[in-house]
Specification:
globular, alpha/beta, eight-stranded mixed β-sheet, three-stranded antiparallel β-sheet, 24% helix, binds S-adenosylmethionine
Length: 231
Amino acid sequence: MPQKPDYPLLRQSVFEQALLLIENVLGRKGTLIDLGAGHCGFSRIANAMGWKATALDVRTARRPDLPPEIAFIHADLNSEAWNPDDYDLILCLGVYYHLDQTMQHALLRRCRGKPLIIDTHFANPAGTINGYGLGDVYELNGETGADFKEAPDLDENTRKSMALLSSFINPTSWWQTKDSLLQTIHDHGWPHVWMFDYPTIDEVQRSFFVCHTIDQNGGGISGTRFVPFGR
Ligand SMILES: C[S@@+](CC[C@H](N)C(=O)[O-])C[C@H]1O[C@@H](n2cnc3c(N)ncnc32)[C@H](O)[C@@H]1O
């Protein structure tokens, strides 16, 4: 039996690979905004890799002391406090699955065609067990997915102040199946998506979706799958 990889470490290395891929697409490093940055670890990695990073979060409780090169915006990502045109790359890591469908579509419309890295959970197809207390899979405005109840045992104010990893405004978030999410990304202007499968840790039920518009290998909507060492 292969040993289980350390998931946070693996996630970090997948992020680094994704940044390298976008650098290749752009032909240079550039500016990025890290939406829902939380601990700001990904902004710090990007900064160390030569990118100009801006972190944004609606909460500041987990924000560390940041070096002066990393800017921080204290705001709701659904607001006009940031402008996609100011950045070469948008990061949406661990936060897309804390948005409802309306917010997700608004975000994709704002970022249309711009390099975008989404790291998100997805719902499994109907009948498959999931570990996140998702509701049943159903169709919502042409998408297939399930509802994720955010901190269901807390009232709204407690969720906002105490559930630091959760959504802010919306009590319920929308988790699509992987194929449905790929279709949505495609429909919003990204023909090319690079994905990652975590071997031996299928229970994470999540992937990076690295979205860009330059065809590097003809992979298209079906996505280029980065197959990690050992598979
Ligand atoms: C699960 S944590 C992810 C942190 C980090 N990006 C990561 O991937 O490890 C989700 C973060 O998104 C933030 N967040 C949730 N909804 C938000 C919103 N509408 N606007 C900005 N930040 C939000 C939370 O405050 C929290 O810091």
